[in-house]
Amino acid sequence: MAGLPKLPGFNFVDPTTSKYHLSHTFNYCNGYRIPKIGMPGIGGQELDINSVAYIQSQDPVRYDPSLTYGRTRSVAPPQFIPHYALYDQKCLTFKAFFKQSVTESPLEYYRVRKVNIIYFLEDDTITVMEPRIENSGLDQGRLIRRARIPKTEMSDYWHWKDFAIGKDITFYGIVFHTIDCDLFTREFMRSQGLFIGEPEEMPPDPYTQERHASVQAHVTLTPSADDKLRRFLEYDGKVLKFDAIWDTRDEEFGELRPYQILYFLADDTIAVKEVHERNSGRDPFPLLLKKTKLPKIWTDRPVTYPACYMELSDAEVTEYYQPKDFLIGETIFILGRRMLLVDCDKFTQDYFRKALCIEQKPPIEYKPKPKPVPPKPMPPHDGIGTLEDSLQNTLTFLPKPPRKDVIRQLLNANKYLRYVMKFDVVHPEDEIRKFILRYSLADGCCYIYEPPIRNSGIWGGKYLQNSLIIKPGSDPLNPSYYTPADFYIGAVIVVHEQRFIIIDADLYVYRYMQANSEKFPCEVIENMRNYMYNKGYLTDDVENELEKEKETQKKAQRDAIGRELEITKTEMQRCMESLKAGGEDTEYSTRKKREILQQYEDTLKHKYVVPEHGILPVNLECAYPVKIGKLPDLECREEDIADASFTPKHVDTPEEIQQKYYAEVLRKHHDVCEHGKPIVCDKPDLLTRVPPEEKVTTIPEPIMVSGVEHPKSACRVKAVRFAEGDERCMRDRYDLCNLKHEKIPCNCVQYEKK
User: Fold this and answer.
1) Which domain holds residue 116?
2) Could you tell me which residue ranges the DM10 domain spans (predicted)?
């Protein structure tokens, strides 16, 4: 059991063991602790001395350091790369030359031939290449094939360590002198610790220099070939167009005849077309000259040339017309005819500007100015249908209906303005007739209807169907029609020579004027507003305005109460602040005096609202008009103002006198015109009736009103003076407060100056 390992399942308990004490480990000898050798275990049992825990450090046989520090790792040997794989496709290139002697030529003794020496590192082979030179006459290319070249007779071969710049190298009896190398060769030699030297110059070849000197550069002018295919592909369809005239006015029955000259850039040919005009009396020949090359001088040909049956060729013509010969304002000859160039098209102008750097002149005007076409008179309207329909018959052969304003019809559909009219009385029996005018806002047509009156003997009903009413005196071919701006109370409307007077209108008319005030004059809106107010139709509007005014006043009162609550002051302080008592701010005191005086004068004025120019006529049909005489000068003069002016309460100002006077005149006028007795007309006798043109109309005499007279004492209210002393000034202010107290309560209190 003693030899069993200390593992789970291998431990057994000895039942015979009765001692469990643990023996000591050290013994003391001369005061020092010395470990016991072969110390027993628990209960005096011997320990396992063969265990690793009891191995002595001096035992070199059983001690293994790898158990403590681990096994040592050996360095891996480097990977082996063969020589041919390491230097595969790596070459050293040297530039060199050798001199070749020439014995059979008197012009040269030797030649300098350039070569490239290539050394292959993978197998230490060498090859020599000579670059090919054009027209050298030598067999150039590979001079020495690739192989290991022996250096000596002792079986030594050339190695890359034997190469350097500026060194003579002998291959098979030929001496090569190196002068340079490439960059890879230089870097490789430097990496191996070898310095190969600086590059050298290539010596010149005497024969090559002599050949270069003997050869001279010959400059020749080779005429450019006229490539017709290229010109066709580039200029096909591109034509220069010119407008020209043939002037034959120096001959009998001569004239200016227009032509069009076409220059074809593809083959330099020219064609001349006739420009046909309507009713010219000439046959419509298409071309004056067909497409052909045109010589400049067509008579310049040999005398012996058979021109009667042979055409001119390029050999007989010295010069043809070219594009540069066609300039605006120049004269060219088309087979003896003088043609003046007057204009060209846009493509021709661009071609001359870009290709020839020539700017064409502006076109030449040669045609006489056409006479102005007289306007076509419009036929007068025959009365059948509307004017717009009749005008359509004169514009096109197949007349079309006139265009309608669809937007206006959609926005104003079923919207009408209605007015009440009466005849401008000529016959007494027509006085009772009333008419209703309905204006359509959709198309501007008017419809007139007469309400029937019982036992009148007059048939009522439709008086005028929907149609546009023309204003009198307008142009029949461009008439102006009646619009809502022409309809107001008292307006005279002429319908087919019949005069009507508008006497009434719907409230919707006034509402429409309010909503579209920009379409109506101010006088028309004011006229309709006065009429509606007199009729009592605007009562609701007045009440609404009064309610708004009351709300505004209440709000102002609430704001005033709020301001008083914010700053609480005594009556004495408010009066002192209003009068600025103390005499420090004289400017404020003067301004306050004027304000109080103006408030007092305003309380004395009457509330009559009368315009300055007199009385407005309320009843337009009053037989007794009122005319106001010349107004007197109401300005107060210096002599009317006394030195000691005062402010009496019982004296009226000039404005008050004038207002009272006009108010009395207005009352009398109202009594006469509004509440007077109606005029009763007797039924005239048919036999003794006077014709209308012989009737004598009597104009009633107007009531003349004289000017306003006012006493001179009334001017005293204009001047109020204050004494300079403090006591008088304070009393006057106090008096002014009392004066104001009669009309408006004042917050001033009695005070005395201390």
Assistant:
1) 83-205
2) 88-193, 236-356, 413-517
What span, in angstroms and rounded, lies between the C-alpha atoms of 268 and 364? 26
Strand, helix or coil at 694?
A: helix
Residue 552 belongs to some domain of the structure = no
Location of structure tokens 């006394």: 642
**What per-residue confidence (pLDDT) applies to 271?**
95
Task: Check if the beta carbon of residue 113 is closer than 8 Å to that of residue 130.
Answer: yes
Q: Do the beta carbons of residue 580 and residue 588 sit within 8 Å?
A: yes
**List of residues 6+ apart from 375 with CB closer than 8 A:** none
Write phi, then psi, for 211 (nearest 5 degrees).
-65, -40
CA distances from 544 to 547, 551, 563 (A): 5, 11, 29
Task: Tell me which residues of the chain have a pLDDT lower than 50.
Answer: 606-626, 628, 631, 634, 641-650, 676-708, 710, 713-754
Distance CA 436, CA 422 (A): 9
624 found inside a domain:
yes
Q: Which of 482, 516, 550 is the last residue of a domain?
A: 516
Contact 646, 716 (CB under 8 A): yes
418, containing H or E segment: strand 416-423
Output the domain CATH number for residue 283. Answer: 2.30.29.170
| Beta pairing partners, 292 | 270
How many domains is the chain partitioned into structurally?
5
**Closest C-alpha among 451, 444, 452, 386 to residue 416:** 444
